[in-house]
Amino acid sequence: MIFSRDYIAYLARHTVAGLIDAKVIRTDKLPVVNERVNAGLLEELSLEDRINEEVRVILDAYQEEMHRTGAAYAEMFKKVKQELARKYKAVL
């Protein structure tokens, strides 16, 4: 993940505070809202990590064929990652 968990928690708190200040949301349970926003941000930001891991598993399965055909790992990684991002409707 690009950002540390502490920074993501900071972003979540700052986002919630901004929404409250703008009177977009109201809450009596600030810690609960902060935690839910934090969890949502973590989920979204870790999506790319999960996609990268899935790409590695797929390419490992086709490693022998890629070697035989002379396909470049980096190029195939990029192509498979784009396909999985499209499959998961992710913006990377």
Compute the average pLDDT.
Answer: 94
Structural class based on helices, strands and sheet pairing: mainly alpha
Count of DSSP H/I helices: 5
Q: Rg, please?
A: 19 Å
How much helicity do the residues have? over 70%
Distance between the termini: 12 Å
Please trace the helix and strand order, writing H or E for each element. Answer: HHHHH
Spans with pLDDT under 50 lasting ≥5 residues? Answer: none
Our estimate of the beta-strand percent is under 5%
Oligomer: single chain
Shape type: rod-shaped
Largest β-sheet summary: none
Set down the secondary structure blueprint:
Elements: H1 5-21, H2 30-45, H3 47-61, H4 63-69, H5 73-87
Helix pairs in contact: 1-2, 3-5
What structural keywords apply?
92 residues, mainly alpha, 2 domains, 76% helix, rod-shaped
Q: Could you please describe the fold and organization of this structure?
A:
The chain starts with a helix and ends in a 5-residue tail after the last helix. Helix 1 (5-21) crosses helix 2. It has helices spanning 5-21, 30-45, 47-61, 63-69, 73-87. It has 92 residues and is mainly α. It has two domains: 5-45, no CATH class; 47-87, no CATH class. The model has no long low-confidence stretch (mean pLDDT 94). Helices cover 76% and strands 0% of the residues. It has five helices and no strands.
